[in-house]
Amino acid sequence: MKAMPSLPATVLPADAAPGVSLLPIAAFCFLWSSAFAAAKIAVRDCPPLTLLTIRFLIAGALMLGVAAASGRWKLPAGRELASLVLLGVLNNALYLGLSWSGMTTVSSAFTAVLISTNPLLIGVLAGPVLGERLNWRKMLGLCLGLAGVALVLRSRLSGMQEDLHGTLLVTGGLVALVAGTLLYKRLKPTSGLWTSTGIQSLAGAAALLPFALFSENIGDARLTASLFWSMAYMIVAVSMGGYYLWFMILGRASATSASALHFLMPPLGLLFGWLVLREPVSWLDLLGIVPIAFGIWLATRRAE
């Protein structure tokens, strides 16, 4: 992936945010949603926490290398470094560690629908935590997005018996993602995006390492071609590309507007499941995209 210039991640007030063009939004949605299929392939050959630890370690080193090569590397001091470590634990270790562990006993579709409810939680909490205004248009957009997600996954969830322990793990991942999003806006890290994202990735690896060593056996990993290519894709495309774009979007838009993009993840995740894993897609899946798209437009459009 071509290295992008490091940009300051200064958070602007919601009303003064310059907005984000369609290209990075489309790229983010593509990369983030494709991670479901890539992860499903990778965890067949490697335990999830071990896989994530290696992914975050390599991705973090590469991102800091990009920052150094561009002449923008500088170790953040004090509060800034502590903020990035905390964000890395939330956005990487806890969010993906819990949700991937949960996915070993619950379906990927169920995981997707739980995680994709984060825009509603953020929309409700952004007011008291960040002072963002949740007007009727954003609220309607968030509700339409949630309705579309429910429609897309209705047939997939009906009659399925999901594991309670796995459900609690995925719910914990959802809480971590919401907390990480709100704290990123609250703490306002000012380091370049390559630097800040790289430090977060390394912090996630450090937090996951003891749990991977304690609860998993590295001998269970099988060095297959599918593991290699899925790992390479998640490192370069998802960790480097997807997280870079996510924090860029989050730095330029309100937390509510940025998080509304996650409503696209279930249908796009199903699309990648169909293309890569040959999982079936029904007409209800396609129908659900309509309220999702309209809801995102309402939640993210700027006030005139």
What topology emerges from the helices and strands here?
Elements: H1 22-42, H2 48-69, H3 78-102, H4 108-115, H5 118-130, H6 136-157, H7 164-187, H8 193-215, H9 225-252, H10 255-259, H11 265-277, H12 283-300
Helix pairs in contact: 1-9, 1-11, 2-3, 2-8, 2-9, 3-7, 3-8, 4-7, 5-7, 6-12, 8-9
Please characterize this protein's 3D structure:
It is a single chain. The protein has 304 residues and is mostly helical. It has twelve helices and no strands. The chain has helices spanning 22-42, 48-69, 78-102, 108-115, 118-130, 136-157, 164-187, 193-215, 225-252, 255-259, 265-277, 283-300. Helix 5 packs parallel to helix 7. The protein is globular. Residues 1-18 have low confidence and may be disordered.
Spatial extent as radius of gyration: 18 Å
Strand content: under 5%
Shape: globular
- Mean pLDDT, to the nearest integer, reads 79
Main sheet overview:
none
**Termini separation (Å)?**
36 Å
Low-confidence runs: 1-18
Alpha plus pi helix count? 12
